[in-house]
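User: Could you check the structure of this?
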Amino acid sequence: MTPEEKRKAEVAQECADLLKLATDLKAQVDKARKDELSVTVVRKAYELEQMAHKVRSGSALSASNQ
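Assistant: Sure, the predicted structure tokens are below.
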């Protein structure tokens, strides 16, 4: 497997993890009352933000290497 193929597979897995986390977050937000925000929701939102930043930064690095 070439380094490019390996990175592409890593990005695909990270995106799949990001999608799962976003889906879980939406489900928790849907369960909450409209004026309520639980600590769990805030933590998941932060985790989602960090993961998205990681994917975005990693993709930018690999795109600049081409």
